[in-house]
Amino acid sequence: MIKKLLREKMDNWSSCEMSELYKKIDSVEYVSFDIFDTLLKRDVPNPTDVFKIVERKTNEKNFYEKRKKAEVLARAKSDSKEITLDDIYACYGGNRTDILKRNEINTEIELSSINKEIQSIFYYALKHSKIILISDMYLSRNVIEQLLEKNGISGFKKLYISNEHGMTKADGSLFKYVCNDLQVKPNKIMHIGNSFKADYLKAKAGRIPSYKIATYNRRLQRNYTPKDGKFDSKVLDAFLNNHVDIGDTYSQFGYEVFGPLLYGFVKWIYTEAQKEGIKQVLFLARDGFVMKKLYDSLGYDKDIPSLYIEVSRRSLRVPRLAKNSEFEKVMSSLSVPNMTNIIQIFDSLGLDANNYRQQIEKNNIDFTLQIKRDNLVHDERVRKLYEEIHEALRRNATDEYNNLVSYLQQFDFSKKTAIVDIGWAGSMQKALTDTLNDIHIDNDIYGYYVGMTNKSKIILRGQEGKAKGYAFDCFNRQDEELESAYIGLIESMFLEQDGSVKRYIQTEDGIVAERYPYEYRMPDGELMLEAKMIARVQEGAFQFASDYNPSILSRILSNDFSMMYDHMHRVGNEPEMINIKQFGKMRFFNCGDEVYLANPQSFVHYIFHVKELKRDIYDCQWKIGFMKALFRIKLPYSKIFETLRRKANQ
Questions:
Q1: Cβ-proximal residues to 91 (8 Å cutoff; 6+ apart), any chain
Q2: SS3 assignment, position 303
Q3: Euclidean distance between CA atoms 507 and 529, whole angstroms
């Protein structure tokens, strides 16, 4: 154990700062680079993990262990200081050695990527010195040249490989050979590598100035080490660490957190749709916009066509009031916050409260009065007001109903159709199917969602088998709800840069959706900071998908929710201060109310204003983030949240 920890410490030790290397390069004739773990990285945690990927590709039983043993045996048999890949497979045995060897070579190439920590140093050295590459490696020159070419490493003068010369860096003999071959003194060469012994000590022993870089540098914004210890999750983190660009904090968050979730979800949609025999995929506004964009960019639409349908709870709910406007039923199904006001109530009914000021004031209702949603049905003032506006409500609902019918008739719902949304309770699927049934439009609809809460069992009762959740699915399984502590955070990631759908109107081009003004757009048309932040998050997510989808890992790894959703859940449920700084002060608009995701006042302030603490934690849309921002220390915030939620529901 101690030996392992010491080895890891030495592996990740650097003999100098990266910035110092530029100055050193200017003073030498040759710059020598090690290749593996210096110029090139593998998209797996450990070099031998390549064998695990080969095992999955080829279905060769126990390949990982057998391949490692074959290398040990080949080295024991060899009289030379270095062996070749052919030597290893000669000791492997069996009748599939050619296939396995070819697969290992291809996998090495596929899993290779340029080391972004050293990339700029290499390009600087190209302009100011002569470059040579030196590697202790069993792979052939042809394979190593393919690896270098794939990753854009060119312009070097010479490539020295241990197995060609029977010499190694590890015993210093290859360094001596290089100096003799180039006919230069050792002090005219500087060597850069990651191995403490082979690249640092042995080069120095040969009087070559050497500089050790860390084998592993964490480039990710925070530690996502998988708690389950699963190999697939570790490989994903290795890929992210190798490929993410450091710079813009929001695009980086998109790459390493939102990217895996979005990619995993969209790939799951396509896979499930294929199994179900789905003929078209309809992405629902607004959350479906970014999903459809990725779905199409991955080419899935060429197999199962996709469409974007502009619907919202409001645009589907209000038209239904034309035929069902009984006070009790309407009040019990309003889509408003738990504590609401008359403006939100009227908007949910499809009316503008400002046009009914006289009736509202006559019934002694203040525009700013906060009313508990569950009490509306028992409030006589609200009942009398409702009776006075009922006819206007019915007329408006009828007009909206007719336009909604015309809009929906533009789609062919008789095909086996998937609708896609962020999800939770399934209310959009319920509203859409009920509306289609009411207007006698044949439909065969299946819902695909990021997650489905326990409430979906009530909302979608009778539609069993016609809805599924990706990250968690309380509708079909006994899953745990995962989103409740950070619902505003995850919903913000899917924002379309346009307002919610209000209703449908007739234009010269036919029936189109009318949108509310975009919450994150200023009166002069300029996007607010939050909209720009999310745009950069989504750009980062798309860059991840662009990098990951062509990788062999996207086909070999499981890509299931436990791996692809994990980073988002970790940020939401176990936030670190970098996450709080990124999104805590982001505004979230809930039925017109403007709140923050997680932006508490000071702890001292709340000591003297306890009611404000209760209000602020109720309003915030990232409960655990709020607590972390308030206390700023390590506490079991998830357990605290669950305790508070249980008490609130009692």
A1: 70, 71, 73, 74, 77
A2: coil
A3: 33
Q: How far apart are CA 127 and CA 374, in angstroms?
A: 72
Which domain covers residue 360, as residue numbers?
314-407
Residue 70's CATH number: 3.40.50.1000
H helix and E strand count, the chain: 32, 18
**CA dist., res. 197 & res. 490, Å (int):** 46
Q: Is the peptide bond before 286 cis (omega within 30 degrees of 0)?
A: yes
Last residue of a domain, one of 212, 232, 264: 212
Number of domains in the chain: 3
d(CA 87, CA 163): 11
The amino acid at residue 189 is I
Helix axis angle, 288-297 relative to 259-276, nearest 10°? 70
Question: Are 488 and 585 contacting, i.e. CB atoms less than 8 angstroms apart?
Answer: no
Structural domain contains residue 478 = no
As a whole number, mean pLDDT of residues 584-601 equals: 86
Q: What is the DSSP letter of 416?
A: E
Distance CA 266, CA 471 (A): 12
Whole-angstrom Cα distance, residue 286 to residue 391? 31
**pLDDT, tens only, 409-422:** 999 999 999 999 99
Helix (H, G, I), strand (E, B) or coil at 468: strand
Nearby residues of 375 by Cβ (< 8 Å), 6 or more positions away = none
Strands 371-372 and 339-340: antiparallel
- CA 258/CA 486 separation, integer angstroms: 14
For the stretch 282-326, pLDDT in tens is 999 999 999 999 999 999 999 999 999 999 989 998 998 988 888
8 Å CB contact between 209 and 191? yes
DSSP state of 376: G
Integer Cα distance of 102 and 92 in angstroms: 14
pLDDT, tens only, 363-410:
888 887 788 888 888 889 989 999 999 999 999 999 999 999 999 999
The two beta strands, 189-193 and 30-34, are: parallel
Ramachandran bin of 65, using left for φ above 0, alpha for ψ from -120 to 50, beta for the remaining angles: alpha
Domain assignment present for residue 614? The answer is yes
Q: How far apart are the first and last CA of the chain?
A: 49
Report how far apart, in Å, the C-alpha atoms of 306 and of each of 275, 279, 291, 333, 552 are: 16, 9, 11, 31, 26
Q: Is 271 within the bounds of a domain? A: no
| Residues contacting 187, CB < 8 A, separation 6+ | 28, 207, 208, 209
Pair (203, 331) in one structural domain: no
Assess contact for 267 and 472: CB atoms under 8 A: no
C-alpha 302 chain-centroid distance:
24
Distance of alpha carbon 108 from alpha carbon 147, whole angstroms: 8
Structural domain ending residue among the three candidates 212, 247, 273? 212
CA distance 221 to 244: 10
Please check whether residue 188 lies inside any domain of the structure: yes
Contacts of 135 (CB under 8 A, 6+ apart): 34, 35, 36, 144, 159, 160, 161, 162
Of residues 52, 6, 182, the one with CA closest to residue 552: 52
